[in-house]
Amino acid sequence: MNKQARQQAIMDMLSERDEILIATICRHFDVVPMTARRDLKELEQKGLVIRTHGGAVLKEKKIQDTETSLLKRSKQRVDEKRRIAQTALTFVHENERLFIASGSTINIFGLHLMHTMPLTIVTNAINIAYHLSTDDQLHLIVIGGELRKNSLTLTGPMALHDLQQFRLDAAFIGINAVDETGRLYCSSVVESDIVESLFETVPKIYVLADTTKMMQRHFVPIHSHKPYTLITTYEFTAEAQEPFEKKGIEIVQCL
């Protein structure tokens, strides 16, 4: 197991308990105490944990599988998310093959897609698949994988394998954070694997992000330099927009 995956697993374990001990990390991952301490130090530097004598505790409860549930997020900033979804719909064309990811804004986008035009939809979000299944114009494909209950997404090696079987025209994704340079962040390694695979294989990526996601960082950065289209309600200043433009990122503001 590499360092990033091990640190992700440490965060998973912390989400289920009050504290994790260095001895537990050593035993569970078969590493020496120096490696365990280094992992906890790096997680602390990222602002995710607070080190204690012999271990660490979570600094915040909004990490990975303890992130705010999809149901709760779907009731927040609804008007803002509808504006983003309506704008995103203008980038969809008849008979396209689209990937639709997960998230509360993406869920609203999926609802706006219904009964509009014939499309092929590939998704790893079971809630979106459920809603879209009633539209006879849509050819719906659900990729397999392990279920993440809070986001209702299917992830892991099976999901990645299934995703690579399709040639897609565009992908519409939600994200946990977008920093001041335009870099994207997910809440878990398994989610980031899906996003990075999309960046590698899909020609057009549309990122839907409400104001709360902007100029933030989260647990797992996306390692891709490919430009994308950002559809957001965030009000950019000319200065804030400059780093995005230098990377070729198109900003569509839903004001």
3D architecture notes:
This protein is an alpha/beta fold and 255 residues long. The protein folds into 2 domains: 3-66, Arc Repressor Mutant, subunit A, CATH 1.10.10; 70-253, Rossmann fold (3-Layer(aba) Sandwich), CATH 3.40.50.1360. 37% of the residues lie in helices and 22% in strands. It is built from 10 helices and 15 strands. The strands form 4 sheets. The protein has a 7-stranded parallel β-sheet, sandwiched between helices. Strand 7 and strand 8 (153-155) form a beta hairpin. The longest helix has 13 residues, at 33-45. It is globular.
Q: Count up the helices.
A: 10
Please estimate the helix content: 25-40%
The stretches of 5 or more residues where confidence is low (pLDDT under 50) are 61-67
CATH architecture of the largest domain: 3-Layer(aba) Sandwich
**Highest-level CATH class of the largest domain:** Alpha Beta
Integer count of domains: 2
The total beta strand count reads 15
Strand order of the largest sheet: 6-5-4-9-12-14-15
Strand content: 15-25%
Q: Oligomer, anyone? A: single chain
Structural class: alpha/beta
- Indicate the CATH topology of the largest domain: Rossmann fold
Report the span from N to C terminus.
45 Å
Order of helix and strand elements from N to C terminus = HEHHEEHHEHEHEEEHEEEHEEEHE
Estimate the mean pLDDT confidence: 90
Largest sheet: 7 strands, parallel
**What is the molecular shape?**
globular
Protein name: DeoR/GlpR family transcriptional regulator of sugar metabolism
Keywords: Transcription, Transcription regulation
Pfam family, one: HTH_DeoR
InterPro entries: Carb_Metab_HTH_regulators, DeoR-like_C, DeoR_HTH, NagB/RpiA_transferase-like, WH-like_DNA-bd_sf, WH_DNA-bd_sf
